[in-house]
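lol so apparently i was supposed to do this last week
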Amino acid sequence: MDKYSLEVITAIEAAVQASELCQKIRKDLIGEESILKSDRSPVTIADYGSQAIVCKLIREKFPEDTIIAEEDAKELREPVRSNILEKVTHYVRAFIPTASSKDVCSWIDFSSDSITDRFWTIDPIDGTKGFLRSDQYAIALALVEKGVVILGILACPNLYADIHQPLGEKGCLFVALRGKFSIQMDFKGGSKQTLSVSKIKNPPEATMTESVEPDHADHLFHQRLAEKLNISKPSLRIDSQAKYGVVARGEASLYLRVPSPSDPGYKENIWDHAAGSIIAEEAGGKVTDILGRPLDFSCGIKMIKNHGILVSNGILHEVVLEALKI
Ligand code: AMP
Ligand code: MG
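anyway here it is w/ adenosine monophosphate bound
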């Protein structure tokens, strides 16, 4: 077996199971009128359930590895949350029939918060607001060794597979291994394709992607930058790290994330960028912060040495960094 084969197989299995759990919860508890609902319990149940499954599968195969994931089970263990815990356990049992509520809490709590030489970082549902809107979200897993992302997986259950058919079949699994490949496939491992970024050289031909949520990025600043670069195509607003996949497959040439004026000093979380960044890089793209610095996954949960994010097809990177300076 090749080096990292077991990591790749395990991470894919975990991401696929977690996304099936999330889709099931979405279907059962959100239905079609999601936008009108302010009840966040479906995302809470899915978040915990997804993390329980992923942590269990990773820990089983790699007992020595550190796991750094977004959730912990502290609140879930409180008696007032027993109703939620019961629901989480019910959904997890579809994948792990013997799971008890106690197991579920202990699997979630495999997660720790201190970086080691080799660790997994997990976002059980990236883009929770997209999930609640029945829009884009992702299950994100990455393996980091000595600060370098080695493996990244993004499962995007609601993302169309064919960029020429946005209304066509949905469900994309993005997988990248450092120095080896960046691919997209469906959830059964079919329709496999090697990803490569766009070849666009002239900024006016570029399409940009950005967050949907105005609190997560400075849309006005992005628009001004687009105007400066003579980019006239409307931005693709997409929740979650699916944006990295969209750049990796050449659908957009830029992903910009300038901190929103509502929180200008915001520091990104490692689980929001580790998986996505390797998927874009191994497809030929470039990923830095908005000052051109490489992303630093070695200093803790928060990326304190970075500010904002710029992802490009590589060719356009310098010209966008220059435009960002003024
Ligand atoms: P997106 O779907 O690209 O809008 O990003 C979703 C992620 O944004 C979530 O996983 C959060 O961790 C992160 N986030 C939360 N608050 C902020 C903020 N003020 N600025 C930037 N990102 C944020
Ligand atoms: Mg996230």
